[in-house]
Amino acid sequence: MKPPLRIYRHLPPTSRRTPCALTIGNFDGVHLGHQAILDRLRQVARARDLVPTVMTFEPHPREYFATLNRRPELAPTRISGLRDKMAALACAGIEQVVVEHFNARLAEMSANAFIEDLLVRGLQTRWLLVGEDFRFGRKRSGDIDLLREAGMMHGFEVHTLADVTDGNGHRISSSEVRTALAVGDLERARHLLGQPFHISGHVVHGAKLGRQLGYPTMNLRVAARCAARSGIYVVRVLGLADQPLAAVASLGVRPTVEDGGRVLLEVHLLDETVDAYGKLVRVEFLHKLRDEEKFPDLPSLTAAIADDARQARAYFAVHGL
């Protein structure tokens, strides 16, 4: 039985600090490249009786600097929200996650302070695994050589991992996943992630318009800057029954009925009626049907939804759940 995942919004309290094997990164999507890093970390931690630990950042450092410099277009989109990231890290056997708030204090922290305050005193790091191009500290001044020097002084080993590639020799990265999702290439995203792209969340109350149109929906809030392209998708829903449920979903800003611009995931179960309010569900994206459209009136929207549901049923008739 796996130990429960411990999540800290800053360093663990002194009483909970214990020697760890650590890796550092954003881990957006926890794709196959990340999974290779986590697998090696877990094996070493087990062999050396260390706690397998991940340090990650919220927001993404690039997002922080994009906001600081008033260049929001430079902020990366998000493959997974924090809940899905934590769930994936737990599945990978990680026992401790430190979610460092990336702010001015961290951005201005010297490389030596990063090592001494966070890695040595804060986390009692004994074994560290990072990418070959890992940089840290103010103006990215710290590098692998500095880490190795510090490791000899403070008693931790430093190891690097080369890029993980797919069967065609292409690097597996969060950027590659974002690119696939941005163009609606779910098959490529699944290949990189090792599983279908998904969004999890609690079902919230909506405007009930779908019910009036004859297509009631479950509504999930979506993290800002979701990497997936807005559109209509064939999906399956987990968390409401013993088996996945077939559904069709709209991811987008609902341009026909409102102009608020808030991204929402609306999911219509094809052949089930379930009281889902407040429940935590996982929506897995299987196939893209079309881009989001603005229709001239509600009858046109209703006809499009009916056709979407028909195409989704046809998909499941061929592929199953």
Automatic annotation (TrEMBL):
One of its GO terms (molecular function) is FMN adenylyltransferase activity. Pfam families: FAD_syn, Flavokinase. Pathway: Cofactor biosynthesis; FAD biosynthesis; FAD from FMN: step 1/1; Cofactor biosynthesis; FMN biosynthesis; FMN from riboflavin (ATP route): step 1/1. Residues 192-317 form the Riboflavin kinase domain. NCBIfam families: PRK05627.1-2 (NF004159), PRK05627.1-3 (NF004160), PRK05627.1-6 (NF004163), ribF (TIGR00083). PANTHER family: RIBOFLAVIN KINASE, RIBOFLAVIN KINASE/FMN ADENYLYLTRANSFERASE. This is Riboflavin biosynthesis protein.
